Amino acid sequence: MKNAHKALLLGLALSLALAGGASAQVDFTKYIALGDSLAAGVVNYGSVKAYQDNSVPALIARQAGVATFQQPLVSEPGLPPLMELKALRITPFGVSPVIAFKSGAGAPINATLSGPYNNLGIDGANTNDLLTRTGSILNLSADFGKYAQGLVGKVVPFSDLVLRDGKTTAIQQAIGGAGTFYTVNIGSNEVLGAALTAIALDGVTMTPLAAFTAQYNSLLGALKAQRPNAKVMVSTVQDVLPFVTTVKPYLVVPTTGAKVYLIGEAGQLTANDYLTLQASALIGQGIGIPKALGGTGLPLPEGSIDATGLHAGVILRGAELLAIVTRIAQMNAVIKSTAASYGYGVVDTWAAFRDWDAHGVVVGGIKLTTGFLTGGIFSLDGAHPQQIGYGLMANEWIKAINEQFTMAIPPVNLRPLLLTATAATSVQAASFVLDQATGIQMIKGYAPYALTDKLVVGRGVRNRGPVSTPGKASKPEVE
Questions:
Q1: pLDDT digits (tens, 9 = 90+) for 353-370
Q2: The pTM is what?
Q3: For residue 29, what are the contacts with CB-CB under 8 A and spacing of at least 6?
């Protein structure tokens, strides 16, 4: 009787383990990925087959032995055309990399594929877009034309590229695809507009927390209701962006090492303030630099809102950056608790990027960091990883899948991705210039509602000549 009771308990424990959400193994028979540009594999601000082939979902699928994993592939030079290093100019401040878009435009490669893609990552999408937005491949050309004019964000043409049928949303296609395993990487675009426009406004450049909570619950709830036996892994949102941490709020006097803080519309910047990559083009023309130091004396623009609309700036004051970081932390708490309530797994991408930011990571004997241009993890847009960065991310996903779903998927071999890295340079990143028009298009891609009038240098503003401190021949350098 005692042995029978013991056997009954063991059997019950086994059945509970098999029925448990994150403890049961993953069936990769049909793997479907939902998400935004980080799922789509965007590099250097655009999508192109060479990089899409190494998107995080594609790498996971390949390592898991998935035979067929379809993505909305794009030919060279990408959609939109990718950013590239155009030149290395010699300036009074040393070697200055110049970043701008490639010429031309790519085209869809497999738009006539029957049925939904496995990778439903949509560049520019937020959580609500996955629930409500449709797209038609017939509108692709016209919508990319609107995007080029700054009339719509990237999510509009990329919904055409990914969803294609003009009828169904991303979540509907994901459910209709009868997935046995899903990954969900969404949330970055709830706050990206605040970082790019340099103004943090809840309900304008940031999705209100209550709205995100409801939408995220609806997204995961739909998967649970319609695909109850499928396994699901979701990701937290990372907050490390070289786009807002690269350009320093000061210049440095070489002879003394003194820091000269730049000028903003709301006054002199401080050590707690941050500048976006867009500021580089303005600083390069003397904006924000006092006249006594050879600048124009004109202030760098702050993000603002008035009767005419929201005006993008280049300065994130300390309080604004804190508001963005705080919102991401709140969203990540929602992501973790919602996933737990449905028995879904979580990969903490936020923690991984924070670790790489603090300590770097060694691959093939080379230390990679999150530093812009010189670090290797991020691409030329300062917001998306390059291939080695996606490889690192994929291994975080695989590690979490193995731990939480009792799997043994081998990690991605990062060396081939490291050898094809294109964003790392040997020049000092802080002296670079992001082409003014390129930066504006990047902002409009994720914040089409933003006015960019403050980011265009007006008449009468001269280019910065040799800069010197009063009474000295030496000039400050951009650190």
A1: 999 999 999 998 889 999
A2: 0.89
A3: 180
